[in-house]
Amino acid sequence: VLFRSKPLWRKTAGKTKELQALASCSGTIAPGSMTLILAPPGHGKSLLLKALSGRLVGDEHMSGEVKWNGMDASQLKTAQLQLNKLCAYVEQVDSHNPTLTVRETLQFALDNSVPDIKLLNDPGIIPLHAEKVTAMLELMGLTECQHTIIGDASLRGISGGQQKRVTLAEMLITNARVFCLDEISTGLDSAATLDIMASLRVWCKSFGGSVVATLLQPPPEVFALFDNVILLREGVMVYSGPRVQLSDHFSAYGIDCPDDQDQADFLVDFLSDP
User: CB of 163 within 8 A of CB of 94?
Assistant: First the structure.
């Protein structure tokens, strides 16, 4: 996906003047790649993620333009391409029907992704969908809890880490090609985050999909899974390129990460107070 964004402006309640929320930027989300967006809180990483996933289309409080492969949202619609199915957006908070089992949840998501509901009556579709659900359960490590209900605060079900896996599995099973993940590590420990991101990397490399994620303080093991990094400060793109070239890029300006500090933490601290 090639994206190009003109400045995005936000209307503030009680004020007539618009504030620039995101500066002009452009970039490439390559197939089979994982991209991490790093920025201090409030500097536009979630906004960029929503812009990439088309979540800002029709937002009366925002103005500007975003293009995907040279086409804006209206042109994509004319070409009969549904942006919300090409680019899936995963929020911080999981939202599920607590009474459905894990397998039923994925089956429901898959059935609702079919372009024509009449296809569900095709005898050949039923076993095909069942096989796809089973494969997704295996990929996301949910096989053992597939017949357990999701649950919620008042109904005991699967764990928080498993719920996050179900959320991602719901998106993966719908055949979206780009996944925009907004702080999915919220409420998870570093081990669970690493396990989930490793599963997503397998999906990227196996099926040619792309992941774009925002994480506030990714541990080194998680940071190392990403191919590319985008750095933002006050809505301005500071860096966009391969993760392995980050050190050399900043060293050229006399900025070096101390040996006793994680690179991701150092970069966020630097962006907060350069």
Answer: yes
